[in-house]
Records
---
Amino acid sequence: MASFDAIDSVAVEPDYCHRCGAAVDAREYEGRTHPWCPDCDVLFSQCPIPGGHVVVRDDDSVLVLDEPIPQHEGVLSLPGGHAKPAERPRESVVRELEEETGLTADPEDLEFLTVVHSEHPDVAFYLLTYAVERSRVDGDLEPEFEDGDAYFAPVAELRANPDRIRDSDLDRIELAFGE
Ligand SMILES: [Zn+2]
């Protein structure tokens, strides 16, 4: 059995060690080849990144973002993001909701909906997802980006335009609407 000094969790497999900057080598561990730093004797193990999102329901519509940022690649998205240290998932979701849309909610009003495993070529995410009714949310919509938008889109319209939204987002919207 292989032994080494430590295993560090990483989101993307590295070319260089984040501890010392050395170019990584490779090492077998539990049947897989992992990046490994020969200087620090640290193995790098790729783990999904946790994130949180909220589906805000208003009758037959759902709150979506149209943000001019590269990772959204021209598709709509749900409000949410990553938790900060010492921040519970539902607290981080409520903070992101306010930053991205201007709407405020009580973290305890969020209903847990599901966790989605969203896989991409270099990285994977676990997306904790909550749902809340518009009537439990306060404030007026104020999108974070001047050239972006945050608005309630009819779910039927999203279903009819699958190129405008990721499957992992539409699936969660369907779940929140009990479809
Ligand atoms: Zn190192």
---
Amino acid sequence: MKIGLEVHVALPTKTKLFCNDLAYENQDIPNSNVCPVCLGLPGSKPVLNKKALEISANIANSLNCKIPAKTSFVRKVYFYPDLPKGYQITQLDGAIGKEGYISIKNKKVGIRRVQIEEDPAKILREKDYSLIDFNRSGVPLNEIVTEPDIENLEELKELIKELRSILYYNGVDINQEIKSDLNISLAENRVEIKNVTGIKNLISAAEYEIQRQSQLIKDGKDVIMETRTYKEDTEETVSSREKETEEEYGFIFESDLTFYETSNIKLNKVVIPSKIAHELAEKNGYSEETIRELVMFNKRNLYLLSNTPKEDFSKAVALIEKFYSFGIMDYSDNQFEMMLKYDVSSMDKGTFMSRIEGKEPIKEADKKEIEEYLILTIKQDSTLQGREDEKAIGFLIGKLKQKYHMDSKEAKEIIEKTIKTQKVN
Ligand SMILES: [Zn+2]
């Protein structure tokens, strides 16, 4: 079995690829972020967004690609209403990244190409007419094309996870609906599934198609070379009745743009989270799977765990999980470090919160003072005497919170204990 993948992701830039319109913000009103460039009006000229070039180069670098000395663009010529200038600007031979690979558990999957291209406009299909929104026209995309090195569904899932993790560490929004093309061949003929939206659908399309082709082979039938479409509602692929031939597009050099030198692009240190998870597991003698879960899509966790000494490592993992379980996402490095000195495993939320806020547990000596204060308070207030009901205890909790900055649980414990001892005496 051979599976290859082409994924398209939108890049995290403020403005579009070839003009100064906002790429993602204020998109509610259709056709509000548009200009002659992204509307494809005659006479308009594209100007390359250098930030998109930089992000793409870094993605290519993270995927072990060769980055050519100069990168350039081509026009992919086709006519469609979402592309009024009659061509899409993309890269092909001038791609920012070539011949890379991505490591998954047992192998390397080749990366044929990482290229920059513009997103066309969005077509909204109504019953008997269509509307076009050009806000999306010119949004910067990266197309990542793998070699057909994936040999089963497990590897495909691993590859997708690994790729998304690397993209996330390059600042890409991984919650976006990633558009992919998938090619799968169990026999000789290659079947391409075009325009699958979202990761869940991608896996489901692959599952269906593998099953379909296996069945054909089992029945002694031919698998036809064709392009298919994934139907979300029935979770199956259907023939889109297009002949699968070599690309019929005309590609011509984009002479409105120049050759761009890549030597001056700032390349960041490559971060491969799964590799770091592996190293942390080895170094600290800890479960790799747990560390992967915490760091693959969380830069903060990776930072915290990478900076934790071995003797505190398992406490740090437990602490991060505790923060999750209490739904606390915005804690400082100092708070994290401070919490490492406690055993948080059995701590309830109230105590946990008061520790984060820097409140130390009450010492035995302080407890004595608090008890004396309580006895005195009850003595001085006749309405409190001899009472153990919630209202009275609530009143006393308020007093202790105010005077000793205790949390409710601690206060309640000490009040109940004091009342009990008083009764015995
Ligand atoms: Zn524009």
